[in-house]
Each structure stands twice: as C-alpha cells, then as structure tokens.
Design a protein that fits this description.
heterotrimer, B: 290 residues, mainly alpha, 2 strands, 76% helix, C: 244 residues, alpha/beta, 6-stranded mixed sheet, 9 helices, 35% helix, 25% strand, globular
C-alpha cells in the first residue's frame, strides 16, 4: 500500500518538475496525452472492466467539448462552471443512450453505440448556430479558475495533470471496490452474476453513465487545451481512435489506456512530419496488435517481467502459494 | 401527389441499394460470426474501381459492373485467407477489431489512389432516360435498381430455401457448429461466404455510385446505414433485411425531403423504437451474441 | 410450513410442450429428489423456479408471495438459489474472488465504490470467505484461477457458491455429474451436513446420491409429475425402471 502512495508521489513530483526540464512543445504534447488518457480511461470502464465494447465514445467527448465551449462563450468561462456543465450534459446524454443500449449486448451494443454517436455528430453538424457546424466552434474564451485566467500552457498543464491524477486515483479505487468487482464479474459471466442476485442491468447502466461522464470531462479539457472544437472530434474516427488506444495499451488494466494514449499521440506526432496517411499507419499498427499482442502494451510488459522474474527466482504468487500451503 | 410518388420511387430504389449492401454484411455476420466493419470499405472500393473503369480504361459501365465486384472479391479473398484466418482462434471480438483496422487502412489507401474529390459515375446511356407510366415520369435507372434489388432478393431467397448451399447457410445462421456436423468443409464455407459478401458489397458500390456519388467517408455513411438496417431487420432472415432496407430507404428519402435537418434522427428514432419493441429486430429469430 | 407452491405451470418452446400442468407444494426443510429421463423437463423446471425462464402458464408462490413474473436476480435475493448443470463460474477469477462476489451482496456492499476491496477494509467479508474456504477444503488454492482447477473442484465451487448465499431453497442441478466416485462421496457427505431448515431440491441421475439425501421423490416424465412419494415407494414402483 505504501508502495502505491510512493508511486503516486513520484508521478506527482515528475509532473510538477516537468515544465522546468522539458520544452514547451513537449509540455503541450504531454498535456494532450493526459487529456486523451482520461478519455481512454473513461472508455476502459465499459470496454475493459464491464466487457461492453463501444464504438461511439466520441459522442461524450464531443458533447463535453461543445458543452464547455458553448457555456464559456455564452455564460461564463469559469472552469468549475464549464466543467460541471459538461459533466451534467454528458451524464444526461449517457443516461439517455444507455437506456437503449442496455437492451442489447455483444456486437449489437457496438453497432448501437456507433449509430448513436453518429446521431450526435449529425446534430452537431446541423445545429450551426450553436456549434458552428462544419466550421467548428472557435473564439472560445480561455478558462478561468478562481478568478484567474489560465493563459499559459504550463498552468493549463498543471491543472490537467492534477485532474488526471485525481481521476486516475478515483478510477483505481472504483474498479478495485466491491462495485468494480461486480463490473468485472459481469464481464466474465453475466448469467452467473444474475443468479448471485445482482441486477446486472443497473450496474452496466451505471458503468455506462460513469464512462460517459468522464468522457465528457476529457472533452471539456480538450476545449481548454485547443481553444477550438472541430466536428471531427465527435466523429466515428475519434471513437475508433480511443478504442484503439484502450486495446493497444491493454484493456481492463489501469495503466494500459494511459500507455495506449501516449503511444498513439507520440506516433501521430512523429509520423505527421513524414506522411499524412495517418489512418493507414494507425490501422496497420492496430492490426498488428490485434493479431500478435492481443493483451496490448501492458501485456507485453507483463510477459517481459514474468520472463525476467523466472530468471530471478520464484514469482510473488508462487511464493505466496507455497507459504499458504505449508 | 407526383412528388410523393417520385420520392417513393427514390426511397425504394435507395432501399434496394441498402439491401444489396446489407445482405452481404448479414451473411458474413450470420455465418462467420464476424461483424465486418470493413464491409463499407469493400463497397467503396467497388465504387472507385468502377469509376476508374468508366472514366479511363473501358468507358463502359457494363464492364465495370462485372469487373469491379470481381476486383472486390479478390480483395475479400485475400483478407479472409491471410488476416481473418489467423484470428479465427482469437475469438470474434479480435476479428471485428481486425476489420476495423482494415477500414482505417482502406480509407487512406483509396484517398491516396483516387484523391478526396467528390466524383460520380454517369448513368449508362441505355438506362439514362425516363419512362412514363400512367402519366407519371420516372427515371429509368431508379426503376432498374429496384428491379435488380428484387432479383437479388429473390435469388438469395431461392438459394437459401431451395438449394443445398442454402440449407448449409440456414443451418449456420441458427447454429454455427451445425455446419461442421453436416460434414461440410467449414473453411470453404467461410471463404465462400466472405467472398460472396465482398461481391455483393462491390456490386452495390457500382450500382449505387450513379445515384449516391463517390466521396471520402462514403464507406462509413454506408456502413452505418447498413448496420441500422441489420439491427432493424434482425438477423437470419432475408425478408427481414429486405423489409428493413425498404423502410430505412423510404424514411431516409422522405425525411431528407420533408425535414432535411432531421433525416438521420428519423432513422435512429425508428431503430430505437424497434429495439424497444422487438429487441431481435423486425423478423429476426434470435440475438446472436459475440 | 409451505415454502413453495407451484400451481399448474406450463412451459412450451414454439409448439413443443416441455412441462404440462405441473403442480406440487414443498415444505420448508424438505429434501426432494427429482429424477426422470433426459428431456423430461427437469432443468426447465428449475429454470422456471429460478426465473431464468418464464412459464407459459401457471403460478409460482414462494413463502406466500407470487413470484411468477419476478426476474432471476430478485428470486435469488429471496433465497431461491441454484447451481448449474454445466459449470458456470467466473473462469478468469480466483476461487476467492468468485466467493467474495457472492458474499459481498449478502454483506450489503454492492453499492460500495469508494474503497478498494481489501482484507483490511472488509474484515467480516473476508473472514466469512476464509471460513467457507476452510469448510470446503479450498484454502490452499484460493488464489488459483477457477479455469485452472480440476472439473471436480469446479463442481464443488459451483455448490459452494450456492450455499454461500444462505439460501432458503437450494436447487442442485446434477451436482455430481461427471465426478469420480470419491468426489461424489465427498459431495454427498457435504450435502448431508446442510442445515436442517434448508429446503433442497436435487436433480440427479446417480440414484444412490438421491436415495442418500432425499426424503421425497418426484419422478418427471414427459412434462408430467409421474410419481410424488417417499423414495421407498418410488423405488418399489415398477414405473421407475421404465423411466430412468
């Protein structure tokens, strides 16, 4: 347990120190990674922990982004206000979509989420007055926190890093809690959970809404970060990219989606200077992972550490089992 | 009144296009258990190959109508033999994700080869006129599309209900393991069905392009509509897919005409209603899970 | 005291009638064996009692309440708990995790999301789990994934999970199917030690198991209750030899 607090403190220190050691370009990159990592973590709640593969998660990202932007333009740029508004609207949307999507499972769920997110997209695309339609939403005022405008990327980085740490810790507790264990149970065998007396639909619905709410948070952070929202942020490509992040990183683990987000953002930034065929590269990388590394980056890392441990001596689990057996 | 009938013809012909595309998707989903998210891409490739054939090489729509589906069939064959086959032991989710990755790859490849301009294919001269029936003028091509859709539906129905292959397909739709029990080479069935799905997608691409045009992202517009038709119609029934196609086609066309901003919502609304009312689709037999 | 009243339930799939007008009452604490040939509707009958299927006609009362239309998870909370004919466990999780999932509902922890499930936070939960593991001789393997256990052990866990919920009526669907003789004997011993007030219904092909446990025997044949009597009478009845 101390170990976890120590890790947490180290990461916190690293984040705090980062702006003093790396260039502003890299700070921007790191900020983007953190935002997309929150997005990927939010999807992981349903895909990785509950076993419901969604291909429409951009709906919540986009809703959060547009909600934050529109509130900032028309009401107030106070970050607490925009963030809260974005979460409320994402929760309402997830609550509504969830009602329909809970009726189905498996690939039907995937199809329905995809269809609903396209519906949100066409709504965004067509309500030009509010969203700017195909031109996107620009001229969004910078976020204000406690009466103080966050105009500098470094300050924004600190705000987002703090929020990331908070959400990561919160999610870690959530998935480790009795509630989270029920979600994992549903992923493994829903019939059994029902016969244990769990109303699985409620848990799936809650997971869906939590996931949507966090997706909305990441979307609104993206608005602060970018100062501009394009309708493509709601498009299926965004849903696809975040699903790819989760799966390449390692679904059903906490660190996996973060690794996945980092890898995709870094890859995209690197590739961008050579070619504009980003989808070709992303698709190919994804296919390679699906075939050769189905458990993602986290799985690769685990395999390596198991191999390393075998050389070093018996693993923790075997030691534990031996101790218990004696 | 005239406008309504004209829109109805447009709607039904659009529905027929959706039917041709969706039944390929439904066959592959039913038999292989793979929700082929690259199905729209195969459709798109059919369109673009037809475009190249009609504008550069042969200038003939009819050649394109034969060659483009075959070209797509070859691509489908390669996908099934090389990539899908590797993932059969990994489970259906991996296969779906694989086709999703393929959709990304095909998207950029087509953009690279054909650019991202909006293109279109001219209706062949033979079918470009219009006919007058009971004082009402109809574009001939639309009527032909309706005819083609009905012929394909009838053909598939005949294959499914009257032939040995159809028996295998029906067995597979209700119980995939039964195919093996019938003493059929299951790999051959999988390959054939996947290629057949490709041919239908490619054929749909050629026939649809004079009406719907060619543009970047066309594959996902189509894929999503096809998925909606699949959900509404229910799995394992050609009649269900057919009904749902016509329903979606007509609703989409009228929606676009009457409330242009709401056309997508009408379809999604229809889908949501049908799911609440009948979770396994209009004529579906059961919900097959992944 | 009557715990279960089944009134003329009927179940058909398509045109096929699996159960036809089945009626009977069960008193609390009764041990009932259900036998019958394959296809007699035994498992379907269990599915109707647990709510995994809804009857086409008829009514089911449990402790006086009409539960005919209740979903399975609500009936499970009322105390109707089943084991499955085929092992139906959370294969990727450890024995302990399987057990904790059952117990945490009983301990009212199902909505607890703000604290990681660990021994030091949930003492009572873990203590009960450990006690059960000890009773079932599974303490050593508790961290092993269920899928890595032998068939017999998985069967045993299937029953343990059922009992762990403190049911008032336990439905055992072929608990010893596919087990070796020694494993079967072990299971029979464990079942014999179940608390007296627990109502048990057991579907079994192994008649020795049934005669060892049941004090009342129901023979299902072709969707009908053919015999409903003490094991001795059922045994002596010649029809039994036809149907089993």
């Amino acid at each position: 347990m101390k170990n976890v607090y120590l890790q947490f403190a180290i990461v916190l220190l690293l984040f705090a120190a980062a702006p003093f050691f790396i260039s502003s370009f890299h700070i921007t990159l790191l900020t983007e990674i953190l935002i997309l990592a929150i997005f990927a973590l939010s999807l992981n709640v349903i895909v990785g922990y509950t076993g419901m593969v969604s291909l429409g998660h951009a709906a919540f990202f986009g809703t959060g982004a547009y909600a934050a932007g529109i509130i900032a333009q028309h009401v107030s740029a106070n970050m607490l206000f925009t963030l809260f508004g974005a979460v409320i609207i994402s929760v309402l949307l997830a609550g509504l979509i969830g009602l329909f999507c809970m009726k189905v499972s498996g690939f039907y769920f995937l199809m329905l989420t995809l269809a609903f997110s396209q519906m949100v997209y066409s709504f965004v695309y067509q309500s030009t007055e509010w969203t700017g339609g195909s031109n996107g939403l620009s001229g969004i005022p910078r976020p204000v926190l406690f009466g103080w405008e966050i105009s500098n990327m470094v300050w924004l980085f600190y705000v987002i890093a703090a929020l990331f740490m908070l959400l990561y810790a919160g999610l870690r507790i959530l998935v480790g809690s009795p509630f989270g264990k029920i979600l994992v149970g549903i992923r493994e065998n829903e019939t059994r959970l029902k016969s244990m007396g769990y109303n699985t639909n409620i848990y799936k619905y809650l997971a869906f809404v939590i996931s949507g709410a966090l997706g909305g948070v990441s979307g609104s952070l993206y608005t602060y970060f970018n100062g501009f929202i394009a309708p493509s942020d709601v498009y299926w490509t965004m849903s696809g990219t975040v699903l790819i992040m989760v799966l390449i990183g390692g679904s059903g683990t906490m660190i996996g989606p973060v690794l996945g987000a980092a890898m995709i953002v870094l890859l995209e930034t690197t590739i961008a200077s050579y070619t504009d065929m980003w989808m070709l590269i992303l698709g190919s990388v994804f296919i390679l992972f699906v075939i050769f590394f189905p458990s993602g980056l986290y799985g690769i890392w685990q395999d390596l550490s198991v191999r390393f441990q075998k050389r070093g001596g018996p693993s923790e689990v075997t030691k534990l089992n031996k101790k218990r057996a004696s | 009144m005239e406008i309504i009938i004209a829109q109805l013809i447009n709607g039904v012909s659009y529905g027929m296009l959706l039917f041709v595309i969706t039944c390929g998707l439904a066959l592959v989903f039913g038999i292989l258990g793979v929700l082929n998210l690259a199905h729209g891409s195969l459709y798109m490739i059919g369109s673009y190959v037809a475009y190249s054939l009609t504008t550069t090489f042969t200038q003939s729509f009819w050649t394109a109508l034969i060659v483009a589906p075959l070209a797509v069939a070859v691509i489908a064959l390669v996908i099934e033999r090389t990539l899908l086959r590797v993932t059969y032991q990994l489970g259906h989710l991996s296969q779906v994700l694989l086709t999703f990755g393929l959709a990304y790859v095909f998207h950029d490849l087509t953009k690279w080869i054909w650019g991202s301009n909006v293109l279109s294919i001219r209706v062949p001269d033979l079918l470009s006129g219009s006919v007058t029936i009971v004082g009402q003028t109809f574009p001939l091509y639309r009527l032909v599309v309706i005819g083609v859709g009905i012929i394909i539906a009838a053909g598939l129905w005949w294959i499914q209900n009257k032939t040995r292959w159809g028996a295998i397909i029906r067995a597979g739709l209700s119980d995939r393991e039964m195919i093996g029990a019938l003493g059929v080479n299951i790999n051959l069935v999988f390959t054939t069905i996947f290629v057949l799905g490709g041919i239908l997608a490619g054929f749909g691409g050629v026939v649809a392009s004079p009406i719907l045009g060619l543009y970047p992202d066309m594959e996902f517009q189509t894929l999503i509509l096809a998925l909606i038709v699949l959900v509404i119609g229910g799995l394992g029934s050609i009649a269900g897919t057919f009904t749902a196609s016509v329903l979606v086609g007509v609703l989409e066309t009228f929606g676009r005409y009457l409330f242009p901003e709401l056309s997508m919502f009408l379809i999604f609304g229809l889908m949501a209603m049908i799911l609440v009312w009948r979770p396994s689709g209009l004529l579906g037999k059961q919900v097959v899970e992944g | 005291m009557k715990i279960l009243e089944v009134e003329a339930i009927n179940k058909s799939f398509g045109g096929l009638e699996i159960l036809k007008e089945v009626s009977f009452n069960v008193n609390q604490g009764e041990r009932i064996g259900i036998i019958g040939p394959n296809g007699a509707g035994k498992t379907t009958f269990f599915n109707l009692l647990t709510g995994d299927l809804g009857p086409s006609r008829g009514t089911i009362y449990f402790k006086g309440s009409n539960i005919t239309k209740e979903p399975n998870y609500k009936r499970s909370r009322r105390g109707i708990v089943r084991t499955f004919q085929k092992n139906n466990l959370l294969d990727e999780l450890s024995i302990l995790d399987n057990l904790l999932l059952v117990l945490q509902r009983k301990h009212g922890l199902k909505h607890t999301w703000f604290r990681i499930r660990k021994e030091k936070y949930y003492k009572a939960l873990y203590e009960e789990a450990e006690k059960l593991l000890e009773t079932w001789g599974l303490t050593v393997q508790r961290h092993v994934k269920v899928k890595n256990l032998s068939y017999g052990e998985q069967r045993q866990i299937e029953i343990m999970l059922g009992i762990a919920t403190d049911p008032s009526m336990l439905l055992l669907d072929e608990p010893t199917a596919g087990m070796s003789q020694s494993e079967t004997d072990y299971i029979v011993q464990l079942l014999a030690k179940l608390p007296k007030e627990l109502t048990v219904m057991i579907i079994e092909h192994d008649l020795e198991v049934i005669f060892g446990l049941a004090e009342r025997m129901i023979v299902l044949h072709d969707g009908h209750v053919l015999i409903d009597d003490t094991p001795e009478v059922s045994k002596s009845d010649s029809i039994r030899w036809e149907v089993t």
